[in-house]
């Protein structure tokens, strides 16, 4: 499984770093992990969406910084490009959200998980984030390797952490907060659960301030945006 690339890596309340949305390509398919308010403009500017065999948007949850411009993408791909986008989320609540935004189900294809024919497999994990909305992290597998993408999560699921420490998951892409929060993973908690020798394989994202250097000094990696502003 290749390393993920990022449109942005900031928290909702720190938009200077952009919304934390990742992407990657596999066998002619394009995959987005979340699609926040700032994603649409960057994607239309930086991608040739018509060149891909399939496009998938995999959502961790429905807060606006993770799904806020999905409706614009689906309007554009359906009405202008004539391209069908696959929207992946374990819950059909995303269909209801898009209906409220004027997006008919005929504009896209909803699926609760990736199809067996897809070159990538995903396994969702419920993660602690909001009290009024379920949120998911995903283990993504391809080419005999797996990575984990947390979305927004206050902790790492125990099965994921155990598999990571055992070397069965190559990299963690983890929501990492500097300020105490019941919704996001405080960096000091990551220090408690990740030994120093494994921290370079933890890629911190969804930052709520300017503390990249501090995270690196503590042994962690930090994701970077793929495109310059």
Number of helices: 7
Radius of gyration: 17 Å
What is the percent of helical residues?
A: 10-25%
Mean pLDDT equals 96
**What portion of the residues fall into strands of 2 or more residues?**
25-35%
Structural class: alpha/beta
Q: Tell me about the biggest sheet?
A: 6 strands, mixed
Strand order of the largest sheet: 1-2-3-4-5-6
Report the principal-axis shape: globular
For the record, give the distance between the C-alpha atoms at the N and C termini, rounded to a whole number. Answer: 27 Å
**Parts with pLDDT < 50 across at least 5 consecutive residues:** none
Q: What is the string of SSEs from the N terminus onward?
A: EEEHEHHEHEEEEHEHEHE
Question: What's the total number of strands?
Answer: 12
Folded structure, characterized:
By secondary structure, this protein is α/β, with parallel strands linked by helices. Helix content is 23%, strand content 25%. It is built from 7 helices and 12 strands. The strands form 2 sheets. The protein has a 6-stranded mixed beta sheet. The protein is globular and about 50 Å long.
């Amino acid at each position: 499984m290749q390393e993920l690339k990022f449109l942005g890596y900031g928290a909702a309340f720190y938009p200077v770093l952009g919304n934390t949305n990742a992407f990657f390509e596999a066998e002619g398919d394009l995959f987005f992990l979340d699609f926040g308010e700032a994603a649409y403009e960057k994607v239309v500017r930086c991608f040739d969406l018509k060149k891909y065999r399939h496009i998938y948007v995999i959502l961790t949850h429905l807060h606006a910084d993770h799904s806020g411009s999905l409706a614009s993408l689906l309007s554009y791909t359906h009405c202008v490009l004539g391209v069908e986008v696959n929207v992946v989320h374990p819950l059909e609540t995303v269909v209801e959200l898009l209906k409220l935004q004027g997006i008919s189900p005929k504009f896209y294809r909803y699926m609760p998980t990736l199809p067996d024919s897809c070159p990538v497999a995903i396994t969702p994990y419920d993660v602690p984030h909001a009290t009024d909305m379920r949120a998911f992290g995903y283990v993504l597998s391809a080419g005999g390797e797996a990575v984990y993408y947390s979305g927004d999560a206050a902790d790492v699921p125990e099965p994921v952490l155990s598999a990571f420490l055992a070397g069965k998951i190559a990299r963690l892409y983890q929501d990492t907060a500097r300020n105490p929060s019941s919704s996001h993973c405080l960096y000091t908690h990551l220090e408690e659960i990740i030994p120093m020798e494994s921290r370079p394989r933890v890629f911190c994202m969804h930052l709520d301030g300017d503390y990249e250097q501090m995270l690196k000094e503590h042994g962690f990696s930090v994701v970077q945006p793929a495109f310059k502003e």
